[in-house]
């Protein structure tokens, strides 16, 4: 008898023409509408699945996979995967994959756009104009901060950070960065970026961009003490994860004139934004759209589908998903989740 096709859960509507590829190998249950799931609903959806295609909205940990006896792979549509408890997935022998590279340049473009909008007060100026405040051209209207000739600090110098550094060269900015590990000298030269310690980065940056992964170690890395080390004229931009910033402390610094402006694409409790930030005029707020160009969002879904198909043992890359997250940990644990055929795991 033919083996049953693996069952795959697709948690949100993505691009139908891309997700359709899963149907060649798997039985697919896909959400028809954008959905917000309770932990119990996620657990129920995963309980009968061999694979899942999820977004950063779905938080998956030990409780959600407790009844997922067949689950072999979770393909996350996103480069960040802090919505997944990798320790719990490792313990259960479940592979996680993400979507790096395909979103690097689009996200770096957006980081720069948000920086420019924030430093030059673009959205604030537009709001002011639309509200009918513009009575006469004046020299002192909406004075902002220059990008050219300024010092750009980048916290987190992975692929996206490097993309931002390359763009900054075109604006004649001095680029400083801090990262867990220093980049090779060739890469530093190519990015025209100099490595500094965290405190120095805070103190010297005219504009500070956050592009580092969120983890327990980086939780609230920008807190009241870090903000106090920044120049009062500085701009802070966060395109990584909301949990990197202590938002009430940021709102306090912005309201008290201890920081000039902030551009935020991500929030600790998103989609909720704290009222203290919403009330401020010197903050540009966008709804987590840094990778949201049509081409890039399609490429992310396509890569996630490739990962799922390969991890379930099908297609040209059977057993070799292109961008695994925890393959090394699973291999070290002697787990054979990768490289298996489509056979059901347990
Ligand atoms: C989006 O935030 C991503 O991690 O891809």
TrEMBL record:
<dbReference type="InterPro" id="IPR006139">
    <property type="entry name" value="D-isomer_2_OHA_DH_cat_dom"/>
</dbReference>
<dbReference type="GO" id="GO:0016618">
    <property type="term" value="F:hydroxypyruvate reductase [NAD(P)H] activity"/>
</dbReference>
<dbReference type="InterPro" id="IPR006140">
    <property type="entry name" value="D-isomer_DH_NAD-bd"/>
</dbReference>
<dbReference type="GO" id="GO:0030267">
    <property type="term" value="F:glyoxylate reductase (NADPH) activity"/>
</dbReference>
<keyword id="KW-0560">Oxidoreductase</keyword>
<dbReference type="GO" id="GO:0005829">
    <property type="term" value="C:cytosol"/>
</dbReference>
<feature type="domain" description="D-isomer specific 2-hydroxyacid dehydrogenase catalytic">
    <location>
        <begin position="11"/>
        <end position="313"/>
    </location>
</feature>
<feature type="domain" description="D-isomer specific 2-hydroxyacid dehydrogenase NAD-binding">
    <location>
        <begin position="112"/>
        <end position="290"/>
    </location>
</feature>
<dbReference type="InterPro" id="IPR029752">
    <property type="entry name" value="D-isomer_DH_CS1"/>
</dbReference>
<dbReference type="GO" id="GO:0051287">
    <property type="term" value="F:NAD binding"/>
</dbReference>
<protein>
    <submittedName>
        <fullName>Gluconate 2-dehydrogenase</fullName>
    </submittedName>
</protein>
<dbReference type="InterPro" id="IPR036291">
    <property type="entry name" value="NAD(P)-bd_dom_sf"/>
</dbReference>
<keyword id="KW-0520">NAD</keyword>
<dbReference type="Pfam" id="PF02826">
    <property type="entry name" value="2-Hacid_dh_C"/>
</dbReference>
<dbReference type="InterPro" id="IPR050223">
    <property type="entry name" value="D-isomer_2-hydroxyacid_DH"/>
</dbReference>
<dbReference type="Pfam" id="PF00389">
    <property type="entry name" value="2-Hacid_dh"/>
</dbReference>
<comment type="similarity">
    <text>Belongs to the D-isomer specific 2-hydroxyacid dehydrogenase family.</text>
</comment>
């Amino acid at each position: 008898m033919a083996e049953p096709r693996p069952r795959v859960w697709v948690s949100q509507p993505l691009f139908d023409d891309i997700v359709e590829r899963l149907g060649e190998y798997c039985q697919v249950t896909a959400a028809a509408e954008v959905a917000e799931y309770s932990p119990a609903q996620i657990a129920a959806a995963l309980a009968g699945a061999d694979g899942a295609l999820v977004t950063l909205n779905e938080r998956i940990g030990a409780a959600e996979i407790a009844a997922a006896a067949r689950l072999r792979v979770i393909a996350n549509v996103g480069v960040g995967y802090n919505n997944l408890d990798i320790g719990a997935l490792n313990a259960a022998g479940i592979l996680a994959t993400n979507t790096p590279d395909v979103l690097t340049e689009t996200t770096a473009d957006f980081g720069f756009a948000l920086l420019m909008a924030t430093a030059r007060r673009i959205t604030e100026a537009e709001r002011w104009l639309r509200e009918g405040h513009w009575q006469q051209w004046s020299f002192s209207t909406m004075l902002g901060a220059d990008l050219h000739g300024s010092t750009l600090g980048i916290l987190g110098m992975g692929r996206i950070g490097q993309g931002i550094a390359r763009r900054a060269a075109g604006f004649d900015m001095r680029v400083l960065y801090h990262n867990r590990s220093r980049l090779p000298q060739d890469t530093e030269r190519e990015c025209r970026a100099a490595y500094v310690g965290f405190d120095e980065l805070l103190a010297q940056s005219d504009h500070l961009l956050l592009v580092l992964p969120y983890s327990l170690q980086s939780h609230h890395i920008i807190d009241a003490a870090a903000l106090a080390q920044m120049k009062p004229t500085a701009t802070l931009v966060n395109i990584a994860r909301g949990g990197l910033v202590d938002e009430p402390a940021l709102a306090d610094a912005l309201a008290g004139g201890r920081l000039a402006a902030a551009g935020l694409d991500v929030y600790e409790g998103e989609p909720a934004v704290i009222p203290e930030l919403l009330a401020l005029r010197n903050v540009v707020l966008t709804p987590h759209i840094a990778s949201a160009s049509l081409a890039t969002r399609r490429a992310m879904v396509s890569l996630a589908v490739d990962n799922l198909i390969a991890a379930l043992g099908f297609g040209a890359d059977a057993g070799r998903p292109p961008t695994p997250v925890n393959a090394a940990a699973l291999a070290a644990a002697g787990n054979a989740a990768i490289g298996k055929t489509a056979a059901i795991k347990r």
